[in-house]
Specification:
Layout (H helix, E strand, L loop, with lengths): L6 H6 L11 E6 L7 H11 L11 H18 L3 E3 L6 H10 L6 E21 L6 E21 L3 E8 L6 E6 H12 L3 E4 L2 E5 L2 H9 L3 H14 L6 H5 L4
Parallel strand pairs: 2-3
Antiparallel strand pairs: 1-6, 3-4, 4-5, 5-6, 7-8
Length: 244
C-alpha cells in the first residue's frame, strides 16, 4: 500500500535548480489619447484639421492599413492564414516555426474576427436649435484582426495583433522562457530545453541574471523594432504629434 505524497515531497527529489522568471506575457498596445471620445475628437479636429468628427473619417485609415498589410504579405511572401473556429493558434504557429530557417523574420499573418473597442457616430439633436449633429460614442464590434507571428533574434517566437479599425488597439505576446533560451544560446551557455522552460543549465546564476534582466525597456524596444518593420495605422505625422 502506498500513501499519497505531498506536493513538496514530489518536487523535492527531481528539482536540480530553481530559476525565477516571467513566462508568457500578453501586453496591451494602444494610443492612450484614443481610448476616450474627447481624445479621438481632438485628434481629428485639432491634429487632422477636420471641422466635424465622424466615424467616416476613420474608414480611409483602416482601408490604407489593410491594403498596406496585404501588400507587405505579397512583397515579403508571408503566408496569410485565416484562423478557423476550433483551431489552436499555438499549433499553427508551431507548424510554421518547424519550417522556419532564418535567424528572424515573419512566420505568417493570421486573420480572425474578434470583438473589440470601436467608436461610432450617433446623430444627436440640439435642444436649442433642433439641428442634428454627429456625436462620437464608445462601442464594441466584431472587427478583423491581424496576427503577425514572427521570430525575433533575441526573443524567439512572438506575435503582434492589430485591430483593423480605429483606435487600432493591439496586443503583443511574448514568452520570457523563450527569451532566456535565446540569450543562453547567444552567450554559449549549455542548457537542456523544455517546451516551455529549461530543464538543465550549466550556469544557473547566469540564467537567473538573464531572467532578471528582462525589463520593460527591452520589451518596449522589441515592440518599437517590429513596428518599424511592419505596416501599422500610425502615420509619421501622427507619431510626431504624440499619437503613438
Amino acid at each position: 500500500m502506498s500513501l499519497p505524497r505531498s506536493g513538496a515531497e514530489v518536487l523535492a527529489d527531481p528539482v536540480s535548480f530553481e530559476v525565477e522568471g516571467i513566462d508568457r506575457m500578453y501586453l496591451h498596445v494602444y494610443v492612450p489619447q484614443w481610448q476616450r471620445e474627447v481624445g479621438v475628437a481632438s485628434f481629428f479636429r485639432y491634429h487632422r484639421g477636420y471641422q466635424f468628427v465622424s466615424s467616416a473619417l476613420m474608414d480611409p485609415i483602416s482601408k490604407s492599413f489593410v491594403a498596406a498589410m496585404d501588400a507587405f504579405a505579397r512583397q515579403e511572401q508571408v503566408p496569410v492564414v485565416p484562423f478557423r473556429k476550433g483551431e489552436r493558434k499555438d499549433d499553427i504557429a508551431a507548424e510554421h516555426l518547424s519550417r522556419f530557417t532564418k535567424a528572424e523574420g515573419e512566420l505568417f499573418i493570421g486573420k480572425a474576427q474578434e470583438k473589440t473597442l470601436v467608436f461610432r457616430t450617433e446623430r444627436r439633436r440640439s435642444e436649442n436649435t433642433g439641428a442634428t449633429y454627429p456625436w462620437l460614442v464608445r462601442s464594441t464590434a466584431l472587427v478583423n484582426q491581424f496576427y503577425v507571428y514572427g521570430v525575433d533574434r533575441d526573443f524567439g517566437l512572438f506575435f503582434l495583433k492589430f485591430s483593423t479599425y480605429f483606435p487600432y488597439n493591439a496586443k503583443l505576446c511574448l514568452n520570457g522562457h523563450e527569451y532566456a533560451k535565446r540569450q543562453l544560446m547567444q552567450k554559449g551557455i549549455g542548457f537542456e530545453a523544455l517546451d516551455n522552460g529549461v530543464l538543465r543549465c550549466d550556469d544557473p546564476k547566469r540564467l537567473q541574471a538573464i531572467c532578471d534582466g528582462l525589463k520593460a525597456e527591452k520589451i518596449d524596444a522589441l515592440l518599437r523594432k517590429w513596428l518599424r518593420k511592419l505596416p501599422h495605422p500610425f502615420a509619421a505625422a501622427d507619431r510626431r504629434a504624440g499619437y503613438r
